[in-house]
Amino acid sequence: MKKSKKVLTIGDALVTMNPITKGPLRFVTHFERRAGGAELNFAIGMARLGVECKWISRLGKDEFGRAIFNFARGEGVDMTDVEFTDEYPTSLNFKQINEDGSGSTFYYRHPSPTLTMTKSLVTDDLLSDIDLIHITGVFLSINKNNIEIIETLLKKAKEFKIPVSFDPNIRLKMWTIQEARTTFERIFPYVDILLTGLDELKMITNKSTEVEFIEFVDAYGIKELVIKDGENGSKLYRNNTWYEQEAFNVNVVDTVGAGDGFDAGYIYGYLHEKEYISRLCFANGVGALVTTVSGDNEGLPYKEEVEAFVNNIQLIER
């Protein structure tokens, strides 16, 4: 019997305070408590698509930490390597949602519970049944110590011949673009799949043309460059060929988490060896569905929902 696929991701999580009303936060008086965080969103996205996902993190030993833990466990995420700490409280963020669906995020994550993590957590047993490792720039930006943890993980992944996907997910409120570039230069040699927004790619590389992007990924040996470009769709560069897929037209409510959902959709397609265009179509579908629901991960769809959406099949609700 063929073993089911399993993914590993590592990063922090936050209690996300979603505004009840739209507009500047100074005028918002009521919020709903939810759970969020790039890597947690990705893990939940994979779990809803039917892929087992191990999430490595630390949470404050408090009510918010327990709320996140119970929520993620209930979604089917492997929580074996998530621990509670008394040293730091669970992180928070407050979201601002604008009338057009765009938004801003205000973080309260210093110090983060993930500061208690060290590279000693990276062991052979941790990676013994893992088919892919997914990392993002968010975890790298929280603390310099996290860079050492990720490098240790990536070296171990290379030893075990485990493919690595990376979403830079730049947060300029967390660090400068130069700090990000310097750190990413240490990460890129281990990356097999680079998942990034077009504007983000331009910031990282300080380049703007497809030819320059190809030179960039070829220099680091990155096998797949996946470019997310919102309403313009997505592109994949692999084996000297570009593949493109148009976006789906949806009523956008909240764009937060769409990129994480896209990542989960693309990695699902990669692990299940879908054709390149099919991967992009599936990932576009996940990302589009996420934007139709308010929240970081509330809109992450199940596999059958994505398949019905991308194939324009009407699901029977009752």
Please describe the topology of this protein.
Blueprint: E1 6-10, E2 14-19, E3 31-36, H1 38-48, E4 52-60, H2 63-74, E5 82-85, E6 91-97, E7 103-108, E8 132-136, H3 137-142, H4 144-160, E9 164-167, H5 177-187, E10 193-197, H6 198-205, H7 210-220, E11 224-228, E12 234-238, E13 241-245, H8 258-271, H9 276-291, H10 303-310
Helix pairs in contact: 1-8, 8-9, 9-10
Outline the structure in words:
With 318 residues, this protein is an alpha/beta fold. It has a domain at 38-56 and 119-310: UDP-N-acetylmuramoyl-L-alanine:D-glutamate ligase, CATH 3.40.1190. The protein has 10 helices and 13 strands. It has helices at 38-48, 63-74, 137-142, 144-160, 177-187, 198-205, 210-220, 258-271, 276-291, 303-310; strands at residues 6-10, 14-19, 31-36, 52-60, 82-85, 91-97, 103-108, 132-136, 164-167, 193-197, 224-228, 234-238, 241-245. The protein has a 9-stranded mixed beta sheet, sandwiched between helices. Strands 3-2-6-7 form a 4-stranded mixed beta sheet. Helix 9 (276-291) packs across helix 10 (303-310). The model has no long low-confidence stretch (mean pLDDT 94).
Please tally the helical runs, counting DSSP H or I stretches of 4 or more residues: 10
CATH class of the domain at 38-56 and 119-310: Alpha Beta
Q: How far apart are the termini?
A: 35 Å
Q: What is the rounded Rg?
A: 19 Å
Strands of the widest sheet, in order across it, are 5-4-1-8-9-10-11-12-13
Shape: globular
Tell me roughly what share of residues is in helical segments: 25-40%
Unreliable stretches (pLDDT < 50, length at least 5) are none
Classify the secondary structure makeup into a structural class: alpha/beta
As a percent range, the share of strand residues is: 15-25%
Task: Report mean pLDDT, rounded to a whole number.
Answer: 94
